[in-house]
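Practice problem 4.
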């Protein structure tokens, strides 16, 4: 049988599994349209034509083009997450070449800083963290290799269909390929509840399989697949049975750490680990039946024994198939592993298959490769749309579909459905490469609009969320951008790339709340503390306070879109926080070295932080401030300005 261009060997057609025309009618499950861009006078690109046609229908018009100084700062933060230097701003503003803007786009897309910034977007979606979460929040010392894999893939502009396939089935494709093995660690990124160290008990195994299944729906397909875990989906045509058929692709998958040390070291480490585990078993046995102080005493002894556990050897954090241990997959009433229904095999989502499509042959050797082929088929109506929508969202602050992980009936409707499909088709035709798609969007006049419109009053009444793009939406920098920009303007940013994640100092009271305070071992080399935020340890139970107050996600689940809140702790962190005050001191030192006199220092401070000189009012206030306060206080105040914290 041929479905989406993939041959599906299987059993007899399953009877009685039909989808009504109404269930199949939802726009996201329909084949992508291929409407030609409308003929709209004055449109510089197909994107502009689609957008302007929609604006005209609402009686709206686009804003004027932003200034060059605004554009370069917008572009730098958008693509690299870092501010341009004053010299870079000056060079771009002076460059009157017709290709100046295009050349800048190409330059930034080729930079490693672009890869670091855009990798973070995918790490959000993939729910990347380096600890298990829950009570123990055990560290995963080799998970950083997945982060570096994503950065390298983005930098190389790896085709998205290949990127997806490697993460779903890299270990099936080539066991000897270390990059593929690291990529397939994607399936282990979710939080993990430890049950006395035994992950093979039924409840834990069920949670692991649930995690693997849910992320496929959220990250790749943009559907709330997890809502069908307990019953038929309440809103979308996803059957309860379909959920477990998707889960069946992961039935033989088990965690696999692949040592990178010589065999004799592995043997010695294994023996030492076993000795500690045996001693822990003895202590646990002695604890049985004890109460009160006696039990507390033995609990302390258990911690002492646990501390003897040898540090893990370097390894590839990955997965592997073990068909002999494959978990039998049953439909679970209410998702309860103790309430098993019919056993099912592997099959893709029924709403995207012909009625009665069979399950795959249970002897299929590379099941996740089959799943990846189905997901990345050019005929799959979801995959390309979902990724194009993510890229659009990160450029404009709002997706064409405003709910990037939910293209179902309860998700938002697309504001420009024909544009979404046109972009998705170009994405697939272009070999699933992201950089050409970026460039297409960035070169549009829609992207280059000003964030200020003379028609704002009328436009806001009709379209308060700016879904129709009558202007560019001003945005606050994300947590990583704020921290990295503070390091950059102070001159302290350490551009070192890759390698094990860095633990930076935080308040000891926070560390003491951890199950094991020893987990928060601060990097001894203080220069490592100034690395880009993407290289900081992503710990689920302890986020760096500055990152947390500026809405960095905790990575318990996939984060499709960063929220932007405004509250008092943000101001307190920027005014009173140790990091902010330390950076302000360094920033003040830079101003003192590079600019002589208050007027010059005010000018340089604005050019570094806002990408422009101060206006007359700002210059007057700045020099007056310096006459009464220290340069350190001035530097701290500048880092609190909206001109620094927002991109327009």
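Answer key:
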């Amino acid at each position: 049988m041929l479905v989406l261009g993939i041959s599906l060997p299987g059993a007899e057609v399953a009877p009685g599994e039909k989808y009504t025309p109404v269930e199949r009618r939802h726009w996201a499950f329909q084949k992508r349209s291929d409407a030609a861009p409308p003929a709209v006078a004055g449109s510089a690109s197909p994107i502009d034509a689609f957008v302007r046609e929609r604006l005209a229908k609402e009686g709206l018009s686009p804003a004027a083009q932003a200034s060059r100084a605004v554009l370069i700062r917008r572009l730098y933060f958008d693509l690299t997450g870092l501010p341009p230097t004053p010299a870079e701003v000056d060079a771009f503003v002076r460059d009157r070449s017709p290709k100046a803007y295009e050349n800048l786009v190409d330059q930034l897309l080729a930079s490693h800083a672009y890869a670091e910034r855009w990798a973070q977007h995918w790490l959000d979606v993939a729910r990347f963290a380096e600890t298990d979460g829950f009570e123990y929040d055990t560290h995963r010392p080799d998970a950083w290799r997945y982060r570096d894999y994503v950065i390298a893939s983005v930098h190389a502009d790896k085709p998205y269909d290949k990127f997806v396939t490697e993460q779903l089935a890299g270990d099936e494709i080539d066991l000897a390929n270390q990059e593929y093995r690291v990529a397939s660690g994607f399936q282990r990124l979710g939080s993990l509840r430890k049950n006395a160290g035994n992950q093979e008990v039924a409840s834990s195994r069920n949670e692991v399989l649930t995690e693997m299944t849910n992320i496929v729906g959220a990250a790749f397909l943009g559907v709330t697949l997890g809502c069908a875990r307990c019953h038929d989906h309440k809103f979308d045509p996803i059957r309860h049975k379909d959920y477990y058929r998707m889960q069946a692709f992961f039935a033989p998958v088990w965690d696999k750490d692949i040592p990178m040390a010589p065999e004799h070291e592995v043997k010695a480490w294994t023996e030492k680990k076993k000795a500690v585990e045996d001693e822990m078993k003895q202590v646990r046995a002695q604890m049985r039946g004890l109460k009160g102080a006696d039990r507390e005493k033995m609990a302390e002894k258990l911690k002492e024994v646990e501390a003897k556990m040898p540090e893990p050897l370097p390894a590839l954090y990955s997965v592997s198939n073990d068909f002999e241990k494959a978990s039998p997959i049953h439909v679970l009433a209410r998702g309860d592993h103790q309430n098993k229904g019919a056993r099912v095999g592997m099959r893709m989502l029924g709403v995207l298959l012909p009625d009665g499509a069979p399950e795959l042959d249970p002897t299929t050797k590379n099941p996740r490769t089959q799943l990846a082929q189905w997901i990345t088929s050019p005929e799959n109506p979801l995959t390309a749309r979902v990724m194009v929508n993510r890229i659009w969202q990160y450029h404009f602050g709002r997706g064409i579909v405003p709910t990037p992980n939910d293209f179902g009936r309860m998700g938002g409707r697309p504001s420009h459905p024909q544009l979404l499909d046109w972009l998705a088709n170009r994405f697939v035709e272009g070999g699933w490469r992201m950089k050409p798609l970026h460039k297409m969007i960035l070169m549009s006049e829609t992207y280059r609009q000003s964030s200020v419109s003379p028609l704002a009053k009328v436009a806001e009444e009709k379209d308060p969320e700016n879904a129709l793009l009558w202007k560019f939406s001003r945005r606050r920098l994300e947590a990583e951008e704020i921290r990295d920009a503070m390091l950059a303007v102070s001159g302290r940013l350490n551009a070192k790339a890759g390698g094990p994640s860095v633990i930076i100092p935080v308040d000891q009271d926070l560390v003491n709340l951890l199950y094991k305070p020893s987990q928060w071992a601060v990097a001894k080399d203080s220069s490592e503390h100034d690395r880009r935020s993407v290289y900081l340890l992503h710990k689920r139970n302890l986020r760096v306070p500055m990152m947390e107050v500026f809405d960095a996600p905790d990575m318990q689940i996939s984060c499709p879109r960063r929220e932007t809140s405004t509250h008092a702790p943000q101001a307190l962190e920027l005014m009173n926080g140790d990091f902010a005050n330390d950076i302000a001191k360094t920033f003040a030192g830079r101003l003192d070295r590079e600019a002589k006199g208050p007027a010059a220092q005010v000018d340089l401070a604005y050019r570094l932080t806002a990408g422009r000189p101060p206006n007359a009012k700002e210059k007057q206030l700045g020099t007056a401030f310096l006459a009464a306060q220290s340069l350190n206080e001035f530097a701290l105040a500048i880092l609190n300005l909206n001109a620094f914290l927002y991109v327009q």
